[in-house]
Amino acid sequence: MKRALNGSLTVELDANAVKWLKTRKICLSNMSFGGNITEKDVFSLLDVIHTASNVSFKNCFRITDAVLEFVATRCSLLESLDLSSCRNLSEAAFLFLFERCPRLKSLVVSSCTNLTDASLVALAKHCPQLTRLRINLCRNVSDSAVIALAQHCDLTSLDLSDCPKITNPAVLAVGASCPGLRHLDVSRCEKLTNAAVIGLSQQCLQLETLRVCGCRALTDETILALCKRCPDLSSLAVSNCPLLTDAAVTAIALHCPTLVSLDLFSCTRVTDAAITTLAENCKSLRELDVSVCFELNDVSLTALSQLAQLRSLGVYSCRNMTISAIQSLFQSPELTQLRVGILSTI
User: How crowded is the C-beta side of 159, counted as CA atoms within 13 Å?
Assistant: First the structure.
């Protein structure tokens, strides 16, 4: 057990913890269930669970519709729910939940394979206070659901990664209806083009985190528009975007000086010139991954060694970098994580 900062008790509940709580009738506002929890264990918390506002069943693979309906009925104060990888839940259970939990502000349904557009339209209709949503790895979700959510909920954080049916209209709808959006992940939504991200950047000027990894159609034009309109970006991930060049990285360096995290994994057209410009302008950079950027060599490492706040660096398969140059980075005072692989021995 551990005591949360706000004074409430937070505990990951296994079967023994459930029995302990039941006998003492202790009520919690935050409840996180362990993966071995059963339907019977949850039902035994009838006198405890009604005060919970934050409930997590993350990776509780045995959770059934009956459990979700029990929570929806008993937890009238529910504001945050994590159902990650609860793959046995049906569409009917989701509909039941959303109709009865109008106070929901945060929902995680990652890898809930039975989640459909109809479920999410119901969420949009019944839970207008929703601001944070993760529906990554829900492969049945399409644009219509996201458009409905954008129109009804003032979203500030949205994860659509690995939802292959998502296309430009969904992202454009989020941009048009959710100007307060701060965090967006559309990684591996491979149908997205420049128009989606450019349109988003024109509306969501407070954007802090953007992940577009594996959106292979994106070009330098997108990154330039994004950085000009969203200078407060602190985290940007563009790994496996093969069309990006030095122009994109230079735009990041010149327009986002407070950037903290940048993922350029497998952006194979990026050269030392761009990384040098990045190091000269983004002095707050703490995390950088340039793994599989084959054009980079020791010139980049020399430039990066000047970043006093750099904590994590990935240079895996940067085959033109030498071991001696890598070793020189060990002098960096804050560097605690260094990912290396195939290097030159020269």
Answer: 15
**What span, in angstroms and rounded, lies between the C-alpha atoms of 248 and 22?**
57
Amino acid type, 98: F
What pLDDT, on a 0 to 100 scale, did the predictor assign at position 30?
Answer: 85
The CA distance from 95 to 264, in Å, is 40
pLDDT band at 138; cut points 50, 70, 90: very high
Tell me if residue 235 falls in helix, strand or coil.
strand
Q: Which residue has the tokens 């060599």?
A: 297
Q: Which pTM does this prediction carry?
A: 0.90
Higher pLDDT, 333 or 68: 68
The yes-or-no verdict on residue 335 having pLDDT over 70 is yes
Closest CA to 135 of 192, 83, 92: 83
CATH of domain 245-345: 3.80.10.10
By CB atoms closer than 10 A (0-12, 13-18, 19+), residue 230 is buried
Q: Which stretches of the chain are assigned E, i.e. beta strand?
A: 2-3, 9-13, 30-33, 54-56, 80-82, 106-108, 132-134, 157-159, 183-185, 209-211, 235-237, 261-263, 287-289, 312-314, 337-339
Q: What is the pLDDT of residue 214?
A: 99
Cβ neighbours of residue 261 under 8 Å, at least 6 residues apart? 234, 235, 236, 237, 285, 286, 287, 288
Query: DSSP code of 320?
Result: B
